[in-house]
Amino acid sequence: xxxxxxxxxxxxxxxxxxxxxxxxxxxxxxxxxxxxxxxxxxxxxxxxxxxxxxxxxxxxxxxxxxxxxxxxxxxxxxxxxxxxxxxxxxxxxxxxxxxxxxxxxxxxxxxxxxxxxxxxxxxxxxxxxxxxxxxxxxxxxxxxxxxxxxxxxxxxxxxxxxxxxxxxxxxxxxxxxxxxxxxxxxxxxxxxxxxxxxxxxxxxxxxxxxxxxxxxxxxxxxxxxxxxxxxxxxxxxxxxxxxxxxxxxxxxxxxx
Length: 256
Ligand code: CA
Description:
Elements: E1 12-16, H1 20-33, E2 36-40, H2 43-53, E3 57-61, H3 69-78, E4 85-89, H4 94-102, E5 107-110, H5 115-129, E6 146-148, E7 151-154, E8 159-162, E9 165-166, H6 171-182, E10 187-189, H7 190-198, H8 207-220, E11 228-231, E12 235-238, H9 246-255
Parallel strand pairs: 1-2, 1-3, 3-4, 4-5
Antiparallel strand pairs: 6-7, 7-8, 8-9, 10-12, 11-12
Helix pairs in contact: 2-3, 6-7, 6-8
The protein binds calcium ion.
């Protein structure tokens, strides 16, 4: 595990897991990696600890004795807490994964997991949800306002507007839209999107991209014209509609 060097700033991680052996393994490994760690063994105690400890990220077991991990996440979000959540789930079927993401989680790892995988995902989430590095040089380096059609994404204010309408997005949706906008009119493969937005190769599970594109469409493309287009068998493209999109637009309208 030597390639996982200690983080520069000590991020605070909350481990929520009712199985003592897994909890101990995670706590020990994360401390050795350089994180500040606290833990909880139930959903109720997790919610208290989120308030008390103020973690930068919550590792959240889905199957807990009281509230399940999805309910914990919903409670956090309902209370206005947007701390990123990485689910640990023994369930493997996709509908649970999607339920998890819909409840406001940022990513998931299925049990049995390798600790390496957990560390990689933690790093990826902290990288994309943490404060932007001032790589542009100097404090508060300027980042570019992205514009496409009537979409406006302001990275400094962390705001998206479609026309005059403010569109609230989660950190991951924001990241995804930013990537699409920065590459407008170019087709991006699911693999490219996963690498860029999630920060690592998703071991072939590009369905997370489909799930997030679906969320994004619900927020961005409920206004006309639709801008996020599926390129069959390849990926997605942010562009203005073309004539051959008309049939699909009609289908969409019929769905409304
Ligand atoms: Ca459990």
